[in-house]
Specification:
The complex is a heterodimer of chains A (about 375) and B (about 260).
Chain A: E1 3-11, E2 14-22, E3 27-31, H1 38-46, E4 56-59, E5 62-63, E6 74-77, H2 89-99, H3 104-118, H4 133-145, E7 151-155, H5 163-179, E8 183-188, H6 191-197, E9 200-205, E10 208-213, H7 215-220, H8 225-230, E11 234-242, E12 248-252, E13 255-259, E14 270-275, E15 281-283, E16 293-305, E17 308-313, E18 319-324, H9 325-331, E19 338-343, E20 349-354
Parallel strand pairs in A: 3-8, 3-9, 6-7, 7-8
Antiparallel strand pairs in A: 1-2, 1-4, 4-5, 9-10, 11-12, 11-14, 12-13, 14-20, 15-19, 16-17, 16-19, 17-18
Chain B: H1 7-30, H2 36-42, H3 45-76, H4 82-94, H5 97-108, H6 115-122, H7 130-155, H8 158-166, H9 171-200, H10 203-208, H11 219-229, H12 231-259
Helix pairs in contact in B: 1-12, 2-12, 3-7, 3-9, 3-11, 4-7, 7-9, 8-9, 9-12, 11-12
Classes of the chains: A alpha+beta (about 375), B mainly alpha (about 260).
Chain lengths: ~375, ~260
């Protein structure tokens, strides 16, 4: 059945007006800069802020916009977790079950199972202040899922988690989103999370949707400078194969690139790699130099926006490059032009999804070759 | 490195400390310890002590029972005149207690605004009964619970309540299971201060409830009376108050340290 929302919220001089829709089993990422109103959307969907006249929210074919939060079946994983400080981890997870009338013993048993699954390393009797950021996030996820919500809202689920735990939380989120039978709305400002976890991405700026589509659609044709900056990245998914000199190749379905992993990933590890279009150079002839990735192809599309242009090439794998409008004119680039694209291996950000041989559900490690995407 | 404080500060601090400590010390020094037992029985110490404990505990209970909801109303309610009400509620702290006593006489006394209705209609008389002493103590001490609880409520992030409601808790359940436990240290601190204030209450009590031995004569009132007839007994009664207060202050300090 899924969910459909036609939201209108006014907060002082700021107002949020947007329509969202998602089917059961779908993960919708809500992506936008700070102050775009993403958290307001979460609060409105959960019933924590009053929606303006005319707003409607439908979940499983039922209007929920006039219901109080406790009757909405909307689970929220808050940005700062909001675990109850006076309750143990187990009591936190059992809280929702108890509130909905489950007997104490049954609630504790169920909460114990959820903790075992989501936060196996956490002592059930521990107080939230004893946990690390990553552990708190795990408990918070278990707590939100304990009451079997039909709509799961994840507000910046990787914020406040330190870099070393981020890869594991990301895998956990992938597992949760994949196995959830309702709708997941994931709020993020890190495009990698949106692009890799979501079936569809909605981009929000200043309280309005500016673009919506599949990650591929948005990556290939971002409609605003913000979307282009953040989401308009080259994304590759494939298997890593280490090379003798410390570099590695990433074999994707549509071609192979050379990357520079940190550490030594196992042969055959699955990885997601991103590359900023601005890091891709364009040439009319085969370039000589240090770049290890050189691809030949024809220009598919040139989109000029102010003084910058995004160029799509049909190389193997396909690439998006961002150059100045002046370069377009100087090189005479137009659809059909034969061109060369190059980038350095170290400019590719690499995120390991799975170590070779590891089964899904095991904690994955992560290495980042060139720092994070969003800064 | 342990650094010495400037001499001037040390001297002023010691004078300040002596100013507080000396009167208490003087009580110990001047107490006619030889007449301890006769003196204590002569001034009715046991009765006054029992009455003081009963009155102060009852006043604390009443203050909590009405003061916590009142703090909740002040912290979370939205209604016109809230700031005026807040000022009125804490007024007894700055008001001379005897003024409070006169106010109580004129409101709840036998011929008071509401008291005459209580007396004529229901036959209830508060003045010159233990209930009068309890009401007088509650009047002066309840603001301390209200202030502590309201400050505590402002420091509890309302989003914990919201998180509880998204988990299926009604507003009432969120208050009981989430907000109230987080608020408890503030309430306890307020309750201890309230109790201490009620224990020492004098002016409103003697004005409203009178000074009747065995009925409204709490320890402070007994001290006041003994001062004229038996100065030695007054010192012993005072020392009882001093000891109780010190024990409670130390216990509370430990409790607050633990809560932190």
């Amino acid at each position: 059945m899924g969910f459909r929302a036609d939201l209108a919220v006014t907060r002082g001089t700021f107002d949020v007006r947007l329509a969202l829709e998602a089917a059961d089993g779908e993960t919708l990422a809500l992506l936008g800069p700070n102050g775009a109103g993403k958290t307001t959307v979460v609060e409105a969907l959960a019933g924590l802020v009053e929606a303006a006249e005319g707003a409607t929210i439908e979940l499983d074919g039922e209007r929920i916009d006039r219901l109080p939060p406790e009757r909405r079946r909307v689970g929220v994983c808050f940005q700062d977790d909001l675990l109850f400080p006076h309750l143990s981890v187990l009591e936190n997870v059992a809280f929702g079950l108890r509130a909905r009338g489950t007997a104490k013993a049954a609630a504790r048993t169920r909460a114990g199972e959820l903790l075992q699954r989501f936060a196996p390393g956490v002592r059930p009797g521990a107080k939230p202040r004893e946990l690390s950021g990553g552990e708190r996030r795990r408990v918070s996820l278990a707590r939100a899922l304990a009451t079997d919500p039909r709509l799961l809202l994840l507000d910046e689920p990787l914020a406040g988690v330190d870099v070393t735990a981020r890869g594991q939380i990301r895998s956990l989120l992938r597992e949760v989103a994949g196995g959830f039978d309702g709708v997941v709305v994931l709020v993020a400002h890190d495009p990698l999370d949106a692009l890799t976890l979501a079936d569809r991405v909605a981009i929000m700026e200043a309280g309005r949707l500016t673009q919506e589509g599949t990650p591929d659609q948005i990556r290939n044709a971002p409609r605003s400078p913000y979307a282009a900056d953040l989401v308009g990245v080259n994304l590759f998914t494939g298997k890593l194969e280490p090379l003798e000199d410390g570099a590695a190749t990433l074999r994707t379905a549509a071609g192979t690139i050379t990357v520079a992993p940190e550490g030594a990933p196992g042969s055959g590890a699955t990885a997601i790699a991103t590359l900023r279009p601005a890091d891709v150079s364009l040439h009319l002839e085969r370039p000589e130099g240090s770049a290890r990735n050189v691809f030949e192809g024809t220009v598919d599309e040139v989109a000029i926006e102010a003084d910058r242009a995004r160029v799509r090439l049909d190389t193997q794998p396909p690439l998006i490059a961002e150059v100045t409008a002046g370069s377009i004119a100087r090189l005479g680039l137009a659809p059909g032009t034969h061109a060369w694209a190059s980038f350095k291996a170290v400019e590719v950000s690499l995120h390991l999804v799975d170590q070779a041989g590891d089964r899904a559900g095991h904690p994955a490690t992560e290495s980042t070759a060139t720092g994070t995407l969003s800064e | 490195m342990h650094r010495r404080l400037p001499l001037g500060i040390t001297i002023l601090a010691l004078v300040g400390a002596a100013f507080v400590v000396l009167p208490v010390l003087a009580l110990v020094i001047r107490a006619p310890w030889g007449d301890l037992s006769t003196s204590l029985s002569g001034v009715g110490a046991t009765t006054a002590l029992r009455l003081s404990i009963e009155v102060s505990l009852a006043a604390t209970a009443l203050s909590l029972f009405f003061g916590v909801p009142l703090a909740w109303l002040l912290a979370r309610g939205t209604f016109p005149g809230r700031s005026v009400l807040r000022a009125m509620v804490v007024l007894p702290i700055v008001l001379p207690p005897v003024v409070g006593g006169i106010g109580l006489l004129n409101s709840l006394g036998r011929s008071g605004v509401a008291g005459q209705w209580l007396y004529d209609g229901l036959g209830i008389q508060l003045t010159f009964t233990i209930w009068g002493a309890i009401i007088a103590a509650t009047f002066v001490s309840m603001p301390l619970v209200v202030i502590a609880t309201e400050a505590g409520l402002h420091s509890v992030d309302r989003r914990y309540e919201q998180a509880a409601t998204t988990l299926g808790a009604s507003q009432g359940l969120a208050m009981r299971r989430v907000v109230f436990p987080m608020l408890l240290p503030s309430i306890v601190a307020g309750a201890v201060l309230t109790w201490a204030r009620a224990l020492g209450e004098f002016g409103a009590t003697i004005t409203f409830a009178g000074n009747l031995e065995g009925r409204t004569q709490t320890l402070p009132l007994a001290v006041y009376q003994a001062r004229q007839t038996d100065p030695g007994g007054a010192i012993f009664l005072s020392l009882i108050l001093v000891v109780i207060s010190i024990v409670v202050l130390v216990a509370m300090r430990n409790h607050l340290m633990k809560a932190r």
